[in-house]
Amino acid sequence: MLFKLLSPGLGKMFNKLPLKTVLIVPFVLQIVSAVGLVGYFSLTNGRQTVDTLANKLTNEISTRIEQHVLGYLNKSHQVLIVTNDAIESDNLDIYDFAALRLYFWQVVKERDMEKRLWQLWIVIIILI
Q1: CB distance 94 to 124 below 8 Å
Q2: What is the rounded distance in angstroms from the CA atom of residue 41 to the CA atom of residue 35?
Q3: When you count CB atoms within 10 A of the terminal residue's CB, does the N or C end of the chain come out lower?
Q4: pTM exceeds cut of 0.90
């Protein structure tokens, strides 16, 4: 019934348009809307994927940095404990700089700690 009511109005409106336009326009609108929806869904899904990967990468980087920092601090702490034990047991005289030099050189060679040598000297200076 609704179609019958709209038919005379639609007939007059489409009567003035060429048949070619009446057939092509709906087809083009369907194609444009389908492409638009697929593009929108692809963009949304791509953003979610990038966010997920960015979060995973951030967590992985944080974990690796934490492991390196803890390893660095653990080695330094071990050397400080061994040095403190050597000083407390009187095996290392903090006033004999020749012995200190040899001791720290052995620590550096054994533990591959060239970069951490300055920390050991700071501890000795604080203890003196």
Answers
A1: yes
A2: 10
A3: N
A4: no
